[in-house]
Amino acid sequence: MKTRIAGVHFTDARPAVGETIKISGYLQYYDEETKSWQPAEHKKIKLIVDEKEVGETITDANGKFTFETSFTGDHDLEIAFEGTALLESCSVTKKVSAMSKESKRRIALLVKMVSALFILLVLLLLLIIFILSNS
Q1: Predicted pLDDT of residue 98
Q2: Do 26 and 42 fall within a single domain?
Q3: Which of 27, 57, 77, 103 has the fewest CB atoms within 10 Å of its CB?
Q4: What pLDDT shows up at residue 115?
Q5: Do both 40 and 73 map to the same domain?
């Protein structure tokens, strides 16, 4: 049967160096009878970073898997299912880039400043509307 790894996501797509993140997704197989994708439960999934296997886990009853890991720099990830007698193998590749903690801190500060500026602009606009409607 055909299989796929779906819904792969990171808790943080741009982690800081050494920051632990979770990589999650779902292993599914295509059921020809129901013409739909079904969870593949209790199957082994491997995490491969730069062509080296760094972890493995087992899918739950919903076909979900999760890895916890940290990175330094840029890496190529592969999440792989080797297949069974009934289920075909499949894999998905992703890239991850870890930034310095200082860069991440600066970006967070910039986001806070832009958010505060936006709120101030909205308040100023409301004040102008209020003044114009009362004159």
Answers
A1: 85
A2: yes
A3: 103
A4: 96
A5: yes
The per-residue pLDDT for range 40-69, each reduced to its tens digit, is: 999 999 999 999 999 999 999 999 999 999
Look up the pTM and report it: 0.74
| CA–CA distances in Å: residue 25 to residues 1, 19, 48, 56 | 19, 20, 15, 13
- 23 within 8 A of 8, measured Cβ to Cβ: yes
**Together in a domain, 36 and 86:** yes
> What distance in Å separates the CA atoms of residue 16 and residue 126, rounded to the nearest whole number?
38
d(CA 98, CA 49): 13
Structural domain that includes position 115: 101-135
17 and 38 part of one domain:
yes
Helix (H, G, I), strand (E, B) or coil at 5: strand
Answer yes or no: is pLDDT of 14 > 80: no
Asked whether the CA dihedral 83, 86, 92, 98 is positive or negative, the reply is negative
pLDDT classification of 114: cutoffs 50, 70, 90: very high
